[in-house]
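Progress narrative, work stream C.
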Amino acid sequence: APPLAGLTPAGARSGPPADGWEGPNFIGSRRQACEPTERWAEFYVQQRVLPFAHKAAEAGNLGGMDVVKQACDALLEEDEDAPLARIHGDLWNGNVMWIRGAW
């Protein structure tokens, strides 16, 4: 099975990069914050969603922030009793190293 198969259910801390990683954090070519928070929702809203949504709105690529802010508010209000898990959404072919015979 691919290495990511067990990654999501492996649990995670809320915010900091992987154990041992001390370098900068990027999404594409854009640097992004990666600071620990008490709750995952705080990390995700403040360090992922809102910074990129604001940039998109400023560039004219997002019609407005109202729906984004409503979604973020709902996420922050949600109870977080579930264990944290890693999420990944960067498996596009430009972000994956293809090695013949690796699988």
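Work stream C, second folded protein:
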Amino acid sequence: VWGTAYALVERVQVHGLSWESVRAALYQVLLGKTCFHLWFLYMLLGLYLVHPVLRRFTAAASRGEVLYFLLLCFLFASLLPAWTAFHPEGVVGALLERLQVHLVLGYAGYYVAGWYLRHYTIGRVPEFLLYLLGILGLVLTLGGDALLGGGRELWYSDTAPGVALTAAALCALFRYVLGISEERSRRRAVHALGSYVFGAYLIHQLWMLLFRWLGLTVTALEPVFFVPLLALVLLALSLPMAWLLRLIPGAGKWLT
């Protein structure tokens, strides 16, 4: 639905509204060629296909076994690929090519890590260490190329070490500091917003399209100030729309 909506807006801007535009928009969605931020939905489709298997694993596995799986994911999907980027002809790259450990690649590690951080309670010391690693991850993401080289794509990729560490730290932050948990909760009001965040994510590019049409872009003003301001404005505009969409009988929860 969302892919078709965005693809249709794009087609209408160029070719006008017609049945051919609708047909072309639907075909674009099947090909995965729609608004860039909807890559997330296609990724979710892949995870949902393997969800029954991962669910059985997490239900039967011990905490140590889940941690072992997550360690393998971080090692083979994040750390070792980053290493091989600097040593393409080395032993590690050759072994990665031979081992082909596809089970722990891609986004499965994030999926299980989110479950782990939600299902298990971590102590204060591991929580604090996770925040420190998250700050380190943010530094690596933003400054890895300048500090170590390798190119921006290496440090900005979805499974880059810095991205993975920051994502885990943010997950813990939202659980323990901002109140997304039953135990140690500090701000329960944030929990209510969780129902609408996904909808806001899906909607926010509609506002961006409107802003671009009005001539407002992230480079319109000094980005270091304008980008955070724009993010807050988008959130403030998109959350009410997500709330309204959820009120649609029957379809609301599926749209957001």
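The chain has a mean pLDDT of 87. No further action is required on this item.
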